[in-house]
Specification:
- The chain is an alpha/beta fold and about 240 residues long.
- It has one domain: Rossmann fold, CATH 3.40.50.1360.
- The chain is about 30% helix and about 15% strand.
- The chain contains 7 helices and 10 strands.
- A 7-stranded parallel beta sheet has the order 1-10-9-6-2-3-5, with helices on both faces. Strands 4-8-7 form a 3-stranded antiparallel beta sheet, covered by helices on one side.
- α1 crosses α2.
- The longest helix is centred in the first third of the chain and has 18 residues.
- The radius of gyration is 17 Å and the shape is globular.
- About 45% of the residues are buried.
Length: about 240
Amino acid sequence: MEIIRARDYDHMSRQAANILSAQVILHPESVLGLATGSSPIGTYRQLIDWYKKGDVDFRRVRTVNLDEYVGLAADHEQSYAHFMRANFFDHVDIPAGNTHIPDGTNADAEHECARYDAVIRALGGVDLQLLGLGPNGHIGFNEPGDSFTKGTHKVLLAEATIRANKRFFKREEDVPRCAYTMGILDIMQAERVVMVVSGEGKADIVHRAFFGPVTPRVPASILQLHKNFTLVADEAALSKC
């Protein structure tokens, strides 16, 4: 495990963007696993800036997103499909057909999860997976449990996750209770994993995930076993390590 210690959120974002841009420049047809939430937004902004300057292009990149809320259409303003368009895809030259996100409107969970696993396999797996860290240690929407879930699956969101995401909705009851998410096996099979974490509020879970035991009760802890894992975190997030 490599730890890159950043000064603050902006520095963290630039350090992570350095890793992603180098991947794309060296391997233009890379498969990138992408994350949503507030943590990676700065990384996406930096990549957009470098794209506009002509330093990197995404024409041959393929992407797979970690997750999507069950019940939200791709054009819903709080869907992760909408998030990715607003914060990244619409600002660079990646073809829409090269981007892949679970279909939250597919009510047949078994079919949708099998379909998405097939998409990942058809792409040859993920070359570089970008992650954030949930307040309870979840990665994607792989919530704490008794075991590590392997493939794409439908998950009932934990109350801690719902509370953390309610700020994006008008009311807490508007937050979807379920999501489709890539499984732990999908993440662990990525050639490289990069996680961005910022803020004092994440200091406890960073310590538990990366300086404590590997346990499905803290899903991110399994990344201690990944062959090429980089944690990019600011001083505040690392303050208890």
